[in-house]
């Protein structure tokens, strides 16, 4: 009887297999080789910052070639074709992440220059040139965004509950329509609305204060909270509601004890997205909150600085020593990114703590 070994024909189902760590090792090695090549190429030419995007992109292409060739030699042509398709999917994913990687790399590299204790413990009051910090902007961002969240989360969540649990007819359709319209409102229009509103209420055409910025941001947050919470409430199974009603539990208590706890993970994520959506807004805060170099803890009196406005002001109005102002701007941007990351971690923690515990 003739076997595949005697005829020299390899059986693709019984050939060797690459170890599980091989693709990850090849990917890391390909990125390392590409990084060295890019660094040497840049060193041979004009001095420039390390191009991490080129290193990752060409390293991924090198990985595609290496994994297919190695798989064909060890595993056979059939498995090599499977590896090729998988590597192409990985490449598409990496290419989609390149803008984010480039952004984070640039901000971190440039922001570390002033990422020190002085930046987080001092303001820009009486500072010209070197020194100073962004404490006043950090506090302003936390206060204004926190007040905007206090306004937006209850309004948005209650609106979503009404649309899912109670809303019927023309009123619900009208609310849905206006929420859709608010989703597309430019941020500067929200700032102009808040400024005009308080200028008319207080009869002061030059009014600038933090609470006005919170109102402007809440106009941008509310539709995001409504939409995300509405979708999360819709996916709660009706069987849970019906089981609660069958036990004689009233509707409002069913919503509080059954529906919201079941959807709390998605709601927390939606709230975090809404905060991330507005925490970096510059135009509305520049209009209605203004800017200052001093500390201000009062949302209802005086101008209040925020991190986006701080970064804009440092970049747009540098002094004689331009690099000092640019360093502060990059550090402000890095701080803003870290705040958003912290908010996402808090949202995940809240969702994990308050989500219903499943089990027998």
Q: What report would you give on this structure?
A:
There is one protein chain. This protein is an all-alpha fold and about 350 residues long. It folds into two domains: about 15-115, no CATH class; about 135-355, Orthogonal Bundle (MetI-like fold), CATH 1.10.3720. Helix content is about 75%, strand content about 0%. The chain contains 14 helices and no strands. The protein has helices at about 5, 20-45, 50-75, 75-110, 115-120, 135-165, 170-185, 185-200, 210-235, 240-245, 250-280, 285-290, 305-315, 320-355. Helix 13 (about 305-315) runs antiparallel to helix 14. The longest helix has about 35 residues, at about 75-110. It is flat and about 75 Å long. The model is unreliable at about 1-15 (pLDDT under 50).
Per CATH, what is the topology of the largest domain? MetI-like fold
Return the average pLDDT rounded to an integer: 87
How many strands, what sense, and barrel or not for the largest sheet?
none
How many domains make up the coordinates?
A: 2
